[in-house]
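Contributing new records

If you add data, match the layout below exactly. Sequence lines come first and carry their own label; structure lines follow with theirs. Keep one chain per record. Anything else will be rejected by the validation script.
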Amino acid sequence: MALLNADFIRNVSRRATVAAMAGVVGLAVSVADMRPAVAQGPDSVPDLAESLLDAVVNISTAQNVKAQRSVPLPQVPEGSPFQEFFDEFFNRQNRDNGRPRRVQSLGSGFVLAGDDGIIITNNHVIEGADEITVNFNDGSKLPAEVIGTDPKTDLAVLKVTPTKPLKSVSFGDSEKMRVGEWVMAIGNPFGLGGTVTTGIVSARNRDINSGPYDNYIQTDASINRGNSGGPLFNAAGEVIGINTAIISPSGGSIGIGFAIPSETATRVIAQLREYGETRRGWLGVRIQEVTDEIAESLGMDKAEGALVAGITEGGPAAAAGLEAGDVILDFNGEEVPTMRDLPRMVADTPVGKEVEVTVLRKGKEVMLTVTLGRLEEADGEASADGGTEKPGDKPAEMPEVLGMTLSSLTDELREKFSIAEDVKGVVITEVEGGSDAEEKRIRAGDVIVEVAQEPVSKPADVTARLKALEEDGRRLALLLLSNAQGEVRFIPLPIDK
């Protein structure tokens, strides 16, 4: 990459005179130091690289993998003259192929605390490894043990027992990094050893759908296979990111790499070092993005916050009184800009802390106090209140609204669509082709649980709520839908057609 250099920038000054009506007045105009923005790097790239190379390590792993049958056993009729031949041949092949294979892989890492022998890398670099070896720049090697891992952020903390002092590096503040700032990556691409590349911060806060806490730094510094777990440095030689992923159709660098920001890494690493595991805050909600349509249907001025689609039974949110349909606007004194910001905000909050949560509920802001629990792997599902017809009852009405044919939820329909017993509401029996409902992927067998945040139990409830919304001048109706298994989601549908 061609780094811009400030040497070609010249100071420009200009002196001009302007004739006035009554005479000539001398007017001096100075334009000083007109400098375009540059990706300013260190005074000396070689000096900085030399000072950091010894703190960056190569990580090699070994794993025993049970071999699989390479050739499938053909189906031979019982009693065939070839049966004995095939049995002997494939039994011999299985004996040979059945031996465990030794699989090795390479990655990168860096020394964070030399005195304690603490090494940082990616979880996927060492995941499943039977042996982990840390290779240093001077050629020395040390076996490593795993202190803790976090698959959600793809981080791992290793420990070695140093035989001599280790060169270490420290974290910088990734929040201060701006798009266009100079960065340096050092790692072990394709097993070549300490390799230095430079570039800039191409973007921040990237979500690449790799996990719930995606907040990557994007860089065009060359990152390839084997760079995973290596550090991304700023111009001061501080680690502001941990290289973890690339986008590449060929497997090589095309200038789109991603690093875990130090702001995320430092919190996780501190917990792994102290506890050997992460201890994240847990709210106990399932959330959904607030789209422009949903915002309009809720009477919001703009799309912001996180829409609560479900509440975990017995979780912190349920105990605090949060409800499905609430829009979380503020958490612990901070605004929630979008849905994807809330999981990080909750996870970074200590377990057991009481926090204030402001929600928008039926057009009014409500403040609740929540005592956070500890994150659980499985999200609970909210069940909605409502009634069903008595066993054996037939649906008395099947109105068609918004491109959907509705019916009361009878035992017959529950069996037909395999709807779970705890799902309550109004069942959709048909969806009109080409309708807005079909475009929003509403299907026969889905159940309308709420309309505009009001529970419904029969088709008449749905039509009445839609009529009321139309009389209020609303253009969109917000439906809370459940699938047959009880998973709920909010769908806005236009009612002015």
